[in-house]
Design a protein that fits this description.
Strand order of the largest sheet: 1-2-3
Order of helices and strands: EHEHHEHHHHEHEHHHHH
CATH class of the largest domain: Alpha Beta
CATH architecture of the largest domain: 3-Layer(aba) Sandwich
Number of strands: 5
CATH topology of the largest domain: Rossmann fold
Number of domains: 2
Structural class: mainly alpha
CATH superfamily of the largest domain: HUPs
Number of helices: 13
Strand content: 5-15%
């Protein structure tokens, strides 16, 4: 990747259970590589997780587990800032201020709100509706240059850009207007193993649909063996005609580092059973070191708390510098004790 010297990248994940194979191959592994070129800020976005009712003890455990997974996957606290969103009060503070610069119609157009409302009909809360404003605050607090985004987050980044431009138009250049960081070629777009027209998600109804990073090797093998393919009996790359086969090929390529052409040559025997088993074996090979490292890290809660505390201190310094400019621009007196 080519980047200007130490451009800032911001990204995060919710502590709402384990990450999927799709999260790792499509995002986390790229985050690790970004550390070579960017000033990386990686957040555990626990405030976002509250839009769905959480068991407090379970949420607390998930926060530490996600932090341990960040580290196990290769995110280095000596090279990147890793912190918990709720440990930096400026996130919630700026979200409220930005809410006064966000139009209802903009939020009503968010497709993710419509999707989430269908999934959580019993709890369509205001936080679910204003979620994109908090995401905008997450990004704008750190003068972020680039934000890695998938298809489901493009709208949210566009809103963050619109809010920043609107604010700057009224008060001057307070916020940097962030740009999307488009995934490089070869980054896997992992699909649901039972419905390969949809992306792999931890909220999928069937456990067979998703591979989790901490799944046991035998569970991963079982899930791939039961992966949906088709009745054509031909291994070729055709996302529309053979989405299940294409998904397995994509995963095998991402796990082995082989090209699509090499994959098609390797699986020229056209045997779906071998394709499924070898894909499972390739996935287990890359996940086993992560699982082992995770177990070590997750057992050391004191170390994880130290990592989050150090990251929060770094993040607060940066966020408060931006908040000082925001408050001054709005005419709100800045408390001397804070900055």
């Amino acid at each position: 990747m080519n980047a200007s010297p130490r451009s800032t990248v911001f990204s995060g994940a919710q502590p709402s259970g384990q990450l999927t194979l799709g999260n790792y191959l499509g995002a986390m592994r790229t985050w690790v590589q970004m550390q070579d070129d960017y000033d990386c800020i990686f957040c555990v976005v626990d405030l976002h997780a509250l839009t769905v009712r959480q068991d407090p003890a379970q949420l607390r455990a998930h926060i530490f587990e996600l932090t341990a997974l960040y580290l196990a996957c290769g995110i280095d606290p000596a090279r990147s800032t890793i912190f918990l969103q709720s440990h930096v009060p400026a996130h919630a503070e700026l979200a409220w201020l930005l809410a006064t610069f966000t139009q209802m119609g903009e939020l009503e157009r968010m497709t993710q709100f419509k999707d989430k409302s269908q999934q959580h009909k019993h709890n369509i809360n205001a936080g679910l509706f204003t979620y994109p404003i908090l995401m905008a605050a997450d990004i704008l607090l750190y003068h972020t240059h680039r934000v890695p985004v998938g298809e489901d987050q493009k709208q949210h980044l566009e809103l963050a850009r619109d809010i920043a431009i609107r604010f700057n138009g009224l008060y001057g250049p307070v916020f940097r207007v962030p740009e999307p960081l488009i995934a490089r070629d070869g980054v896997a777009r992992v699909k649901d193993l039972q419905n390969p027209t949809k992306k792999m998600s931890k909220s999928a109804e069937s456990e067979l649909a998703r591979v989790m990073l901490l799944d046991a090797p035998e569970a991963i093998l079982k899930k791939f063996k039961k992966a949906v393919t088709d009745a054509l009996g031909v291994i070729r790359y055709d996302e529309e005609g053979q989405p299940g086969v294409a998904n397995l090929l994509n995963i095998w390529c991402a796990a082995t580092g082989q090209s699509r052409e090499q994959a098609l040559a390797h699986f020229s025997h056209h045997q779906y059973g071998k394709l499924k088993v070898e894909t499972a074996e390739a996935v287990n090979a890359i996940l086993q070191p992560i699982r082992t490292r995770f177990q070590e890290l997750n057992a050391d809660r004191e170390m994880l708390q130290t990592v989050l505390a150090s990251g929060a201190e770094q993040a607060r310094r940066r966020a408060d510098a931006v908040m000082e400019k925001v408050l001054d621009a709005l005419g709100l007196p800045v408390a001397r004790s804070r900055f």
